[in-house]
């Protein structure tokens, strides 16, 4: 599967260059996304601007991966979804809780806001430990 990987200071943007993500391709993409949880900068933005179709299992796995990222205090945001793909995601109940933005710029903002939120919560937790 062809993807573009753009590493920024606080996150990585993964952009599949395919218009359709089949079950075989999704395994490769999902493994790539999962690998970022172990990196120094684990936050990922998945830009789906080129993708017009994705199989049901892949959409469900993306939802599961997003939950795993958040459980590990990492951000995972999907952006740039075509209307056809958006409709497929809207049909899945799992997708309701996913972090999806129209543009990559908005996804950057969410990652940065979540990082600030984690820092504030971490500071709050440490203050409680010292009380």
CATH fold description: Transcription Regulator spoIIAA
Number of structural domains: 1
Q: Please give the share of residues in helix.
A: 40-55%
Low-confidence stretches: none
Task: State the secondary-structure class.
Answer: alpha/beta
* CATH architecture verdict: 2-Layer Sandwich
Kindly report the oligomeric state of this protein: single chain
- What's the gyration radius in Å? 15 Å
Count of extended strands:
7
Overall pLDDT level: 87
Q: In what order do the strands lie side by side in the largest sheet?
A: 1-2-4-6-7
What is the distance, rounded to the nearest whole angstrom, between the alpha carbons of the first and last residues?
A: 52 Å
| Biggest sheet character | 5 strands, mixed
CATH top level?
Answer: Alpha Beta
Order of helices and strands: EEEHEEHEHEH
**C-alpha geometry:** globular
> How much of the residues is beta strand, in percent?
15-25%
Distinct helical segment count: 4
